[in-house]
């Protein structure tokens, strides 16, 4: 299930603002950029380039896994920040449990 429209960063200028004014945390599979703001609910963009996989079906599968994990863990409902999550090519070959563990550890990163 995709993220609701109200929880997505959809405009290019919104995503660029996160890139310019963000804190950054990364692990072997993901790069998370966070832009703290006041009041408004959290929003997110997921960036998966063709360098991760040439097949659109693989990129969509990764995007759906991430969206579902974010939805189940209620990340955006408890935070008032904008997020951009970039996926690294190494994320393609890992197991689903390792994938979710990496996402969880990224959100608990001490730099955020």
Automatic annotation (TrEMBL):
Keyword Nuclease: yes
InterPro entries: Ribosomal_Su5_D2-typ_SF (IPR020568), Ribsml_uS5_D2-typ_fold_subgr (IPR014721), RNase_P (IPR000100)
Tagged with keyword Nucleotide-binding: no
Key words of the record: Endonuclease, Hydrolase, Nuclease, RNA-binding, tRNA processing
Highest taxon, organism lineage: Bacteria
Its EC number(s): 3.1.26.5
Enzyme kind, highest EC tier: hydrolase
A GO BP annotation: tRNA 5'-leader removal
Listed GO MF terms: 3'-tRNA processing endoribonuclease activity; ribonuclease P activity; tRNA binding
A Gene Ontology term for the protein's cellular component: ribonuclease P complex
SUPFAM superfamilies (alphabetical): Ribosomal protein S5 domain 2-like
Catalytic activity reported: Endonucleolytic cleavage of RNA, removing 5'-extranucleotides from tRNA precursor
Gene3D superfamilies: 3.30.230.10
Family assignment from sequence similarity: Belongs to the RnpA family.
Subunit and partners: Consists of a catalytic RNA component (M1 or rnpB) and a protein subunit.
Function according to Swiss-Prot or TrEMBL: RNaseP catalyzes the removal of the 5'-leader sequence from pre-tRNA to produce the mature 5'-terminus. It can also cleave other RNA substrates such as 4.5S RNA. The protein component plays an auxiliary but essential role in vivo by binding to the 5'-leader sequence and broadening the substrate specificity of the ribozyme.
Protein name as catalogued: Ribonuclease P protein component
